[in-house]
Design brief:
Elements: H1 2-18, H2 20-41, E1 42-50, E2 57-58, H3 59-62, E3 72-77, H4 79-84, E4 90-91, E5 97-104, E6 108-109, H5 110-116, H6 120-123, H7 127-136, E7 152-157, E8 163-171, E9 174-181, E10 187-188, E11 193-197
Parallel strand pairs: 3-9, 7-11
Antiparallel strand pairs: 1-5, 2-4, 5-11, 6-10, 7-8, 8-9
Helix pairs in contact: 1-2
């Protein structure tokens, strides 16, 4: 009984700290608003766990044609220059994370998508996470990634630290990888799948 009272006291103390029941209600309403906004552009489909990195991830060692793990068709746009050329993108050790994903329900500008996902901190993923998902569908098998020719979109920072929209799609018997700027007013159409941090 004492322990239960102690727990209740701690909960009440936390409520008081954040401003009481009214503030808690306001926070819950804000969360609901955010979720409704996200549903307005995405048909949320599920989550996928990405394991912890056990060693630094060197992009040019993984994203290469002739790989026996992932069948790559090719790299397009500025992907080679932004992630693989010269000083390859290297990502440091990271703990396990969960990504959420959903399909776009309407054409939306990239900047607007990122804003509705909760900003760059929530939208940003890594090449390691993208590659981990590719290894699960290396030959175009069914899975969390679309394999019907439509793009899967990940927001990843390039060698210079600039956030890019990386498109990965299965076509002509292989994975095509292309990246685009998120700064310009380009619009992404429906049926494309967005991957982002679980919130």
């Amino acid at each position: 009984m004492t322990r239960n009272n102690g727990t209740a006291d701690r909960v009440q103390a936390m409520l008081n700290f954040i401003g009481g029941d009214d503030m808690l209600d306001a926070l819950m309403e804000e969360r609901a608003t955010i979720e409704v906004k996200m549903v307005s552009i995405l048909n949320l489909l599920g989550t996928v766990a990405i394991p912890a990195m056990t060693e630094p991830f060197v992009a040019k060692d993984k994203f290469r044609k002739g790989s026996e793990i992932v069948k790559f068709h090719g790299f397009y746009g500025n992907f080679w220059d932004d992630f693989l050329f010269g000083f390859s993108k290297i990502e440091e050790l990271r703990s396990e994370r969960v990504l959420r994903y959903g399909n776009l329900t309407k054409s939306s500008f990239r900047g607007s998508i990122i804003k509705e996902l909760g900003g760059e901190a929530k939208a940003e993923t890594t090449l390691f996470e993208l590659y981990d998902l590719l290894t699960r569908q290396g030959n175009g098998e069914e899975g969390d990634l679309l394999t019907d020719g439509y793009a899967n979109i990940f927001y990843v920072r390039n060698i210079s630290g600039v956030l890019c929209a990386v498109f990965v799609f299965w076509r002509d018997g292989g994975w095509r990888v292309r990246n685009y700027s998120v700064k310009y007013s380009s619009s992404d159409s429906t049926c494309r799948r967005i991957f982002f941090l679980d919130y």
